[in-house]
Amino acid sequence: MLHQGKASSKIRPENLQESVSVSNGVAKIDAADMHYRELNAKLRALNGNGVKQIELRNVYGQRYIGTDLKENINVDIYGIPGNDLGAFMRGPIITVHGDAQDGCGNTMDEGKIIIHGHAGDILGYAMRGGSIFVRDDVGYRVGIHMKEYRRKKPVIVVGGTAQDFLGEYMAGGILVVLGLTLKDGERHRARFVGTGMHGGKMYVRGEFSHPAKDVKVVGLDAEDREVLLGIVSEFCDYFGYDVKEIMAYEFNKVVPISYRPYNNVYAK
Amino acid sequence: MRTQLESEYVVERNEDRCIRCKVCVNQCTYETHYYDPEDDRVCSRNENCVNCHRCVVFCPAQAITIVPNPTRYTSNDHWTQEAISDIKKQAESGGAMLTAMGCDKPYFTYWDRLLLNASQVTNPSIDPLREPMELRTYLGAKPDRLKANAEKGEPLLETDLSPQLRLETPILFSAISYGAVSFNVHEALARAARAAGTFFNTGEGGLDRRLYKYGDHAIVQVASGRFGVHPDYLNAGAAIEIKIGQGAKPGIGGHLPGEKVGPDISRTRMIPVGTDALSPAPQHDIYSIEDLRQLIYALKEATDYAKPVSVKIAAVHNVAAIASGIVRAGADIIAIDGKRGATGAAPKISRDNVGIPIEMALASVDQRLRDEGIRNKASIIVAGGIRSSADVVKAIALGADAMYIATAALVAMGCTVCQKCYTGKCPWGIATTDPWISRRINPNIATRRLVNLLQAWSLEIKETMGGMGINAIESLRGNRLHLRGVGLTDTELKILGTRMAGD
């Protein structure tokens, strides 16, 4: 069939054990030359069968890893996962030992993604819950349309710097940019930070020059510092940075000017 | 600033008939009517009237008539009443003109220029009351060829079939979001879809948990705002639809104003009470056909390839090429919403000026997919101002697999197309989230009215097919020889792929 590609013959139940080894509740999959449909079908087959930990080796661009895993599980990825890592994900904890590509955490509901490297564009698009930690830099439109609902409050932490349209249409949650990859005196280059933002908050360490017209930049209060300290501590646990050193610098807080940006646009 | 706007309608009350019962006062949510105890009479504020007819229908004495304000500006075909009053409204507010429902301008309906065929002498017509007539329709990708094995006696199908939606009549309820309409309306659509063996579309505002039990008759929508989109929602529906565009406002997003986001809407959309729900114009993970493919397959992965994925677009200039891309991106269903497609709120400039008629879009998409040999890979649903079973029959002959109806469904429940949905004060209890006004829709009665409408249209479709000598809707699908044009140019006939009446 046109749509399904060569993978469809390999996802029959009898083939799902190939390239998979399980011992002591830890499964290992060699993903070399494996189509994403096959890889994800194997993950689904392991999920809920007493396996608590999965190690994926030789991952080269397979998409949608972590999508549709119903029970909580730890997935360690060695290599470069493809786009939409953890899309629509609810629950699992994914650790990437390498870089991630675009669309990571797309419409994510719960769970955690920890990336020991860079990540691409639209990280955390429409993310509603859970958290994403990126050690280094990220691409464009990170945190776009993040939103929060009651106890669900998504958190994205970027260790390095971000590209333009950071926090675009942001409607909730917390976006932290630490600037650890910037050189002394270097500013964040992101332009149009918070375009269309109408909820949530961003904490940015280091100077940035181009906030969008929809936001205001203010200082942190005591509650902000407490929240931020918790988030940064977790970041440091994963990547081995010193919390005190990071928190010693001044942060800026970016918040929307209006929670009702379209209120006066129309003649009624 | 003193307003220069005049009232659009005048309420005429027959004083001899009026019994001062104040039903009109209580029914009008725009406070048009009021009771004056000193004179013991009911009076009207004409400037508030939107011509929704709620008071007319509910007046027990039949005392009320609503007429367009007979005081007009000097007659002028160019500087129309509408043009002048819009300018005045904008000069007074500085805002963009907002409107609702579908485009109301006269020049976009081709259904009325297409006529249907019937059998005479040379082939017999069929009486649908006496003979079986098949309206059942399957939506989803069909294989290029079927392989069966009959070695063991009974033939067994060897080809893996893609997931399909089974409809008992080729009509579905189009996307109307919870928030744009009340819970009772959503419930009625869901129940009617189940009762009639078809599907309702949740729209982009999520699906209330109380309606998950109707999930096997729901198409759950995923739009740029991703409101209420989570694994349970995706798995609750029978199919998933990616909303790229909408016929009433192609190319622009939407927003549900914070006033409409009460506790129930908040829970379903999963956003805080009172915040604006913004749907950006594009889905920012889709800038290309390749990106669309990525989202289609993300949704298929999220539901383990068990459900067809639809992609809904507005009918625009290059719709045929776009549709080809959508099919190649892996969509199982493509939904096309035409110029007449309705909305709860849209800028007037967009509703009345952007997009193309659905008839032209459908004809060109169907032809393009046939020319490319990929028509079987996706079903086509058309939407946008389908008013009657005649429109349905003509659309199927033009190449559609099924229709989405929304305006017609709302009219069945009570709507009179007054085009004021965006006020949130719908006196019929439809386009509102106000708990008090919402109670005006009784889900039991609304469900019955919807089921009746589908039953009536299905009967008419069968009758018309019988007249053509056709006993299965599959034989009518894309059968343009059953259409003839009247009053159309050669170019229009060419695009529609039909011949002139008499030809």
Low-confidence stretches of chain A: 1-6
- In helices, the fraction of residues of chain A equals 10-25%
| Number of helical elements of chain A | 3
Number of domains of chain B: 2
Give Rg of chain B in angstroms.
24 Å
Low-confidence segments of chain B, ≥5 residues, pLDDT <50? none
Overall mean pLDDT of chain A: 92
**In what range is the share of β-strand residues of chain A?**
25-35%
Whole-angstrom Rg of chain A: 20 Å
| Tally of helical runs of chain B | 16
Name the quaternary structure. heterodimer
Measured as a percent range, the helix fraction of chain B is 25-40%
**Beta-strand content of chain B:** 15-25%
Reading off the top of the CATH hierarchy, the class of the domain at 118-256 in chain A is best stated as Mainly Beta
Quote the distance from N terminus to C terminus of chain A: 51 Å
CATH class of the largest domain in chain B: Alpha Beta
Task: State the major sheet of chain B.
Answer: 8 strands, parallel
Major sheet characteristics of chain A: 12 strands, mixed
Question: Describe it for me?
Answer:
The complex is a heterodimer of chains A (268) and B (503). Chain A has helices at residues 36-46, 222-239, 243-247, and strands spanning 20-23, 26-30, 53-60, 74-80, 90-97, 110-115, 131-134, 155-158, 171-177, 199-205, 215-218, 251-256, 266-267. Chain A is an alpha/beta fold and 268 residues long. Chain A has a twelve-stranded mixed sheet with strand order 1-2-3-4-5-6-7-8-9-10-12-11, with helices on both faces. Chain B folds into two domains: 9-95, Alpha-Beta Plaits, CATH 3.30.70.20; 168-500, Alpha-Beta Barrel (TIM Barrel), CATH 3.20.20. Chain B has helices at residues 23-27, 54-58, 81-93, 183-196, 231-236, 263-269, 289-302, 319-328, 348-353, 358-371, 389-398, 407-413, 435-438, 443-468, 473-476, 490-496; strands spanning 9-13, 33-36, 41-44, 64-68, 96-99, 114-116, 137-139, 148-149, 156-157, 165-167, 171-173, 200-201, 218-222, 239-243, 254-256, 277-279, 309-314, 333-337, 346-347, 379-383, 402-405, 483-485, 499-500. Chain B is globular, with a radius of gyration of 24 Å. The termini of chain B are far apart.
